[in-house]
Amino acid sequence: MKILKKNQLAILVIALMLVTAGYLNYTADSEALEVGVDVNQTNQYAAIGDATLVNSGELLEEKDKQQIINTISTAVTSSEEGTNQSTENEEVKQTNSNIKTDDYFDNSKLERDKMYSQMLETYQKLLESTSISQEQKAISEQEIAKINQTKNAIMIAENLISTKGFADSVIFVNDTSVSVVIKADTLSQEQIAQIQNIITRELKVDISNIHISNK
Q1: Structure pTM?
Q2: What is the pLDDT of residue 45?
């Protein structure tokens, strides 16, 4: 009888222990649900630092943390380098564009001056020739004076245009028509009027024969 009671008592104690363990597990699970703990989310968004979480609930090894930090630093550096490279590329494009624009004005002036030099040389040879009439020589002298006058007027006009705040300009004269190319992104009506006044005064050309563009 006593043996039976002892066995019953042992069974009762074991049963109580199982019930208590089950209750504790249930309580822990309930608390986790109440505070919205998501193990997968916690592991996914665990902060990198002194208390980084992993699936096992243990802290990351120091070398692992350092590796992650290095990876992030490398990514940030690569992003910054990409941004800097993009900016540098834009600056290079802008510089190349400016160089091409400057070349246009420089080359255009060189070609224009070369043309005038060749014309002057041709008329000068006619003056020195003994096979042409005095009338033809007189015409050559008039053309030489006209070319020199045009060259001087162009030089003065371009200098005056620069005083209006324009970086550069080039003027082409074709008989009674004058074309002006201005180095500028845009031209206002006031600026166009200023250029027209300069061309009209210096080159003696009617406004209707002045053609202005920007580059």
Answers
A1: 0.54
A2: 39
